[in-house]
Automatic annotation (TrEMBL):
Residues 191-320 form the Spore protein YkvP/CgeB glycosyl transferase-like domain. It comes from the Bacteria. Pfam families: Glyco_trans_1_2 (PF13524), Glyco_trans_1_4 (PF13692). Gene3D superfamilies: Glycogen Phosphorylase B. The lineage of its organism: Bacteria, Bacillati, Actinomycetota, Actinomycetes, Propionibacteriales. SUPFAM superfamilies: UDP-Glycosyltransferase/glycogen phosphorylase (SSF53756). This is Glycosyltransferase involved in cell wall biosynthesis. GO terms for molecular function: glycosyltransferase activity. Keywords: Glycosyltransferase, Transferase. InterPro entries: YkvP/CgeB_Glyco_trans-like.
């Protein structure tokens, strides 16, 4: 006998839901925001929404599945459920109840910053509930996991003999998931099969490939096999949020073998076999195949758990009860004011620190990946277009291939921005640099800067020197200028590593003095001339070491510079992004920070050095010039290599050679870091936003 195939009626029910045939009902209408409404595209969120949606329809609700390109136009729903973190709740009309269902990508949901804009938040596991509760107080305390459609995923026809081949349905989308790495490592005689997308997959993965099967083929696939290799992906595995594959294959009578134990006990699956690598998977399969009775018993036990606890029939009742109780519990409206910001440079904590005070004033930050696209989307949505905070302007024009295409982009951006303002939108321009450091189209950047200065409701300056420094290129109206100084990083980075431990990790010997240059390796930072000056100083003082860490640029000269440093035994270099927990090692191992910049307006690196209590040598330029005379600061003329060498030597002789002076300099740096706290900066920016007439 063969496995039971999908009945046309069930597929027709899914099609009817997608077509909008159940958009209204006796009970309130619930709209699920999904990536696509194409049931054949293979996106998991639509099948979860559809499975839940069909049961809500049966309970009397109207249900709509809304694809991404229609999110901003929803005007006929009582409740909107976001299935993806990409939804910006501020685009939804006033009065609609906004709900986030965090099924996966927990950390991305947290990073997106929009959770305070929802009335209620659901999560798939207790661990996810705990994490989300650190971001918003509207997280429903009981997990709301995904489930299985018990009318779609059914047992095969009686008498069906299941194959002992272990099957997985994990698509390959260009990078190896954990299950793919396991399949790649299995011996050639392993009895496994992979269904799903596999274009451009490595040959050792393609050898198991059995073709692409649609979602509605999966009941037959699971019905034909005794074992299903599950793979909780990396965004979920640390939170114990389980896959649809587990629930659906179990409902079809197959036995899931899972790559984690986290979350299994909570959902009643503590009995399931697990694996971590190819060896463990092979051992598990060998043991199960040798004991088919145990396999059948485990499969039946798992299926019973799904049918008792994890069907969409059960889950729809849980959702509606939680929504009803949540409407009373979370009766106050969510944060009303979204601050959209562009670009999202999440590796730099500056934006996170800047926005840290928004929630206290009823706001929340939302990252924007495409400034022009965002403006057009907001203009197409009902209501006022909201607030846009533009930071670095490089990503607007620099991707253009030539001046003609840059001109077209600039004209389109200017016209759209003016319409955005005319419709009641608000613009805050945060000026980090006078102009981009490595801009291809300086004429365009100057024109863009003047446009932003003219159209902005407020021009956020990180230092008072900005207006004067920008004057040769564009004019900033003083009445629009708001100075909110760049904060330190006090309390942002871990600091538990001792100085001795940090120096030992980097190989700095007792008696050696370490100079550090940390941050992205870019021409404007002058690292090439720092190395030259270091050569001169090292001849007179062999105790000197140079520390360089940061992601290199893409220019050929950056590659040459990288090779030069890595070949020099006096230099400790790491040419890649330094994670937050490792940054402390580099900073605590150093004795002196040097910013060899050729030009600068504001510098996060300067404030970073102060956060770690380091004396610093920096250019007499921009905002840094105001620190001249501080005991921990030595300034040099930015265009004079000799001045750089003299200032470094002065710092070595006047600060580091005298223990009392060193202590005084470190105390002054720490005091400056405490004075310019991230909390102060966050409060000041929140006050600026609250003052807009929104």
């Amino acid at each position: 006998m063969s496995a039971r195939t999908l009945t046309p009626a069930r597929r027709a029910a899914y099609d009817a839901l997608v077509a909008g045939e159940h958009a209204t009902g006796k009970l309130p209408t619930i709209a699920f925001c999904v990536y696509t409404d194409d049931l054949d595209e293979g996106r998991g969120d639509i099948y979860v929404a559809a499975g839940m949606g069909l049961e809500l329809v049966r309970l009397g609700h109207g249900v709509r599945l809304v694809p991404k390109w229609e999110w901003s136009t929803i005007d006929d729903a009582d409740v909107v459920v976001a299935m993806l973190p990409d939804l910006d709740p501020s685009v939804l009309r006033a009065g609609v109840r906004r709900v986030a269902w965090v099924r996966n990508e927990v950390e991305r949901w947290c990073r997106m910053g929009s959770l305070p804009g929802y009335h209620q938040v659901f999560a798939s596991s207790s661990m996810a509930v705990e994490r989300l509760a650190q971001v918003t107080d509207r997280v429903w305390p009981e997990p709301l996991p995904i489930a299985a459609d018990e009318q779609l995923f059914v047992l095969p026809e009686p008498g069906t003999t299941r194959r002992a081949t272990a099957v997985t349905t994990a698509n390959f989308w260009g990078s190896l998931r954990d299950v793919h790495k396991v399949l790649v490592s299995l011996p050639s005689d392993a009895d496994v099969l992979m269904y799903g997308e596999a274009r451009r997959a490595p040959a050792r993965l393609r050898r198991w490939h059995g073709g692409v099967r649609s979602y509605f083929d999966l009941p037959a696939v699971y019905g034909e096999h005794a074992y299903v290799i599950d793979d909780v992906n990396r965004s979920n595995v640390g939170f114990g949020a389980l896959n649809s594959r587990l629930y659906e294959s179990a409902a079809s009578g197959a036995l899931p073998i899972v790559n984690t134990r986290l979350g299994l006990e909570e959902q009643g699956f503590g009995h399931l076999p697990t694996y971590r690598d190819a060896r463990e998977l092979s051992e598990v399969l060998t043991a199960l195949r040798a004991d088919p009775a145990r396999t059948a018993l485990l499969a039946e036990q798992t299926r019973n758990v799904v049918l008792e606890r994890h069907t969409w029939t059960t889950r729809a009742r849980q959702l509606t009860a939680a929504l009803a109780e949540g409407a009373a519990r979370y009766d106050a409206p969510p944060a009303p004011r979204a601050v959209h910001f562009f670009p999202d440079y999440s590796n730099n904590p500056y934006q996170r620190m800047l926005f840290s005070g928004l929630e206290a004033d009823g706001g929340y930050p939302v990252p924007v990946t495409d400034a022009l696209g965002h403006l057009k989307t907001r203009l197409a949505a009902p209501g006022a277009p909201g607030i846009l905070n533009i930071h670095w302007t490089d990503p607007i024009l620099q991707p253009s291939r030539g001046p003609f295409s840059a001109r077209l982009v600039l004209d389109d951006f200017a016209a759209t921005l003016r319409e955005f303002k005319a419709r009641g939108g608000h613009l805050i321009w945060t000026v980090h640099n006078v102009l981009p450091h490595e801009g291809k189209f300086q004429w365009g950047e100057i024109e863009l800067a003047q446009l932003l200065a003219d159209e902005a409701d407020a021009v956020h300056l990180l230092s008072e020197e900005t207006i004067e420094q920008a004057a040769p290129f564009y004019r900033i109206e003083p009445s629009k200028a708001v100075v909110i100084e760049h904060s330190s990083y006090d309390g942002i980075y871990p600091t538990w590593v001792s100085r001795e431990g940090a120096r030992a990790r980097l190989g700095i010997q007792p008696g050696e003095r370490a100079i550090i240059a940390l941050g992205g390796v870019r021409p404007y930072k002058g690292l090439d001339r720092l190395v030259s000056v270091f050569d001169e100083l090292h001849r007179d003082d062999p105790s000197l070491r140079l520390l360089i860490a940061g992601r290199p640029g893409r220019l050929a000269r950056s590659a040459r510079f990288e090779a030069q440093c890595l070949a020099d035994p006096r230099i400790v270099a790491k040419f890649e992004f330094v994670p937050d927990d490792q940054l402390q090692v580099w900073m605590k191992a150093a004795d002196l920070a040097v910013l060899a910049y050729r030009n600068i307006l504001n510098s996060g690196s300067f404030l970073l050095s102060q956060t770690f209590g380091l004396p610093v040598v920096a250019p007499r330029a921009g905002a840094i010039a105001a620190f001249d005379g501080r005991p921990q600061v030595r300034l040099f003329e930015p265009k004079d290599d000799g001045s750089l060498a003299t200032s470094i030597k002065a710092a070595l002789d006047e600060i580091l050679a005298d223990p009392t002076a060193t202590q005084e300099a470190r105390a002054a740096a720490a005091a400056l870091a405490a004075e310019r706290s991230p909390e102060r900066m966050g409060r000041q920016f929140a006050s600026l936003v609250a003052g807009l007439d929104v």
